[in-house]
Amino acid sequence: MGIRSLTRIEAERRSALVTVERYDIAIDLTALPDGPEIRCVSTVAFGCSEPGAETFVDCAAEVRSATLNGTPLTPGDDGRIPLPALAAHNVLRVESVQADTTTSPGAHRAVDPADGEVYLWTSFEPDEARYVWACFDQPDLKAPHAFTVTAPAAWTVLSNSGDPRVEEQGAARRWSFPDTPPLSVYNTVVNAGPFHEIRREADGHDLGVFARRSLAEVLERDADEIFTLTRQGLAFYAEAFAMPFPQRKYDQVFMPEFGGAMENYGCVTWSDMFLRRATPTHAEREVLAVVLLHEMAHMWFGNIVTMRWWDDLWLNEAFAEFACHWAAEGATRYTDVWAGHLAGGKLRAYLSDQGPVSHPIHQPIHDVAQAASIFDNITYPKGASVLQQLKTYVGEDRFRTGMAAYFARHAWGTTTLQDLIDALAEAGDRSLATWRKSWLETAGTDRFTLEHDGDTVTLVADGTPRPQVLAIGAYGRAGDALERTALVRVEVAGPRTPVTGLPATSDLLLINDDDLTFATTRPDAATRDTLFAAAARLPTAISRGVAAATVWDMLTAGEATAAEAGHCLTAVLAAETSDAVIEPLLTLVTTIAELWAPAADRPALTEAVAAACLRLADDPGRRQVALRGLARTATAEGLARLREQAGDDVDLRWRALVREAELGGDITAESAALLERDPDPDAWVRALTVRAALPDPAAKAEVWQQLAVDRTVPVQSVGAVAAAFWRPGQDDLLAPYAEHYLAEMPQLDQGGMIPAMVYTSQLFPLYGIDSAFVEKAQQAGQETVPVVRKTLLERADTVLRMLRARTANA
Q: Which residues are the active-site residues?
């Protein structure tokens, strides 16, 4: 039959029937050093409101035995075990084995290529705990969990609750963890392996960080930064939510072959790619800060208070994404973090929200398979931007009051959208019914322009806008720069909003100055060229970012050419002073040159970006970022200068080799030599990335086999290898891989939600295709699971826009 996805109706029926009292989970990891198996015994005590009724428990692992109140059960073939004739009080005991810890969701066995050591991590969002042990795998059935883990004696075992009792058992040790507070199943975790561990005390919390032994030196390098951010974040959230994190121990575990990061209560799991093997740039450090604070915010949004069903995923993810920027700006040294958000995630959200996969932030979710498809740019960066607007709309003080009331009222329970709206409305003494419907239940992006009639200025919406507060900045020339002469906030309540308080004359009026709302803007015909010419002369990272967002949106909509957008944003890059923006902006302009520009325009745009990188490299503080950008854009002649600048920097040497390979250079010997001297345990992926860029049929075939078919590349590195594989100017060589992609489509969901999104998006062809292929892929995607279908449609829409831009004026 196949593994069934839990529907909302089934979840509501089960929740009405079942009250979970506790889980006792015994896990045996002793087979893992030499084999793949995890053996589990799940004992679940639960009540039933209708004795005699029946329901089911989720278990997609191999069931060895199952009993309910001592009576044997027969598992189904759909990932469920029927539970007939329930008593008022019940004890379920299920023995299970997960023997596929390579490709199955839920748990993963990783082998460090540096020393052969084995590490095990679990990750359960949205409903992947059932692949490891038996449980009621839905968010509103919260209960305490007690984990007992038997593992090899040399291993450390980590879980949600701290201070386990450890007992020696010969070649193994047994770790018995105290009960967790009431948690959803998906917020539990077990991480295990021979870790390198560092601990610190901070403000009454016992903080730990862990990584595989081969990355001990890198973890030691970054530990002070991680501990500082952790202390700052815990203090900020404790004050902002009027609720300190209630557990003394807070661990963060950097694991191999893990995608992203996961907010398990008290024990956050990270991809160890966040431990940068080269010295991190400012933007990379800021990303670490943002992700750390995002996962920490989930201790409140998601763990302490949990959404009742997946239609309120935004209560978890949008709030965590908003809160991490709020905390970073207010409590850390990353005070330009909202400018970085605008240059990165928000631009992606604008594009997604104007394409075929746009959806309301809050929408009905039929089943968990559909829920897996909304971990996206709408839920995350758009959701964060909408909450930033809400804070502006109600005022920060009242916003904080509402948040504190929400957590005090609902701690350790589950909530819906209305619970939060009620708390904020009470605190703000302002109805949010219209705001809720417009912002959370309506898809799409507002668009504004300015209309001039003599001295009268009117803000005009394209259609009926949402209620919102935004600002319009007036700028005048000050030598070669622009300076702000006025900033006027307006509250939008209809399609036309008069704007008063602006100077009689201005060289530029900037809509959504200070980036207070989520809306696109357009200059009128008379000021279009002024915006493109003046964007680089605006005085702040946010004002330049707002102008750049307009230019980018015009490119993606076909209202500006790649040449116009590329040269404008390269000029902004040359003028940029914020380290939070320089790196994402450099990535953006390079992407325009590579993926959006017609072949005839590509060399000039690439040369302009390379020239900007060379100028930027003169600043010692930005040299590393600049040389990385140069490695993507240098000509054969420029590579010589890059090599000279790189010196013994292994990271830059790898990047230069990728570019040299793309240009057809003979890199085999140098790549082998660099692999030999690189201490990074994952350096083999860098060597594969170099090979991926070669304009050589045998190299492409070899890399595709490893990347797409055998899946030997760790999921967190798939994007980098795929980016080197799909190179401009290699169209004929890459054309056959369009059909190869279609052939892989039935397997794209293998491994769970994160791999499905990564492989579907990153393997999608970028060259050697036309619009007919994109439409064929979209059609084929209709037969796939929701997360693949949605990711494919979004990527296909972006690629269609790229193809149109490449043929514009060609």
A: 295
